[in-house]
Amino acid sequence: MASKLSIIFKVSIGLPMFLKILLGSVKYVEPGFMIDILMETNIMGEQYNLYISDEDIVHFGLMEEISAFCISFYISIIYSELCDRYISHFFGFIEPSWSLRIGTNMDNRAEIILERINNTVMGQTWLMPYHLLRHWMLVIIDPDDDTCYHLDPLKKSPPNDLKNLMNSVSSHIKQKTGRNEKKYKWKIVNFPRQTSSVECGFYIIRMMKDYCLNETLMR
Question: Please, which residues bridge with residue 140 across strands?
Answer without folding.
Answer: 127, 149
